[in-house]
Write a structure and sequence with these properties.
Layout: E1 3-10, H1 14-29, H2 36-54, E2 60-67, E3 73-80, H3 100-107, E4 110-115, E5 120-127
Antiparallel strand pairs: 1-2, 2-3, 3-5, 4-5
Helix pairs in contact: 1-2, 2-3
């Protein structure tokens, strides 16, 4: 049975934690607790990037979790209305930042970006645990 939940978050620092809480609650409700830690880290990175680089003042970003009936994946999407193009960086080992999208790409089975007339969607897919 397909499942889907979405929530919008304002352009505030507290929205990063709220987006983590949202995915934890949804995954627990869907009984997909083995995925919580990876998806929680990924939504934290994507929400932070949306706030820093994608959400214009006065706007929001959206977090969507969904899974299809015949699909073996749980999908996470973060959409914002800003410009910017997410790029995976490979920083020096002594750099303090720039590893977020690299980590996201390593944790997710699929990683991509869809560009829209206004904004973009960063989308990830995570293999659903067997028996879930």
């Amino acid at each position: 049975m397909p499942l889907s939940q979405q929530r919008r978050f304002p352009r505030r620092r507290s929205s990063v934690g709220a987006s983590r809480d949202f995915v934890v609650n949804v995954l627990a409700e869907w009984q997909l607790t083995p995925l919580i830690e990876d998806i929680k880290l990924c939504v934290s990175e994507l929400a932070t990037n949306a706030l820093l680089h994608g959400v214009p003042p006065g706007r929001e970003f959206a977090v969507l979790l969904h899974t299809g009936g015949d699909d073996d994946f749980v999908r996470l999407e973060v959409r914002d209305s800003g410009g910017g193009r997410p790029v995976v960086q490979y920083p020096d080992e002594d750099s303090c930042s720039g590893r977020g999208l690299f980590l996201v790409g390593e944790l997710a089975a699929e990683f991509g970006v869809d560009h829209h007339v206004v904004g973009k969607t960063v989308r990830l897919a995570f293999k659903r645990p067997s028996g879930a």
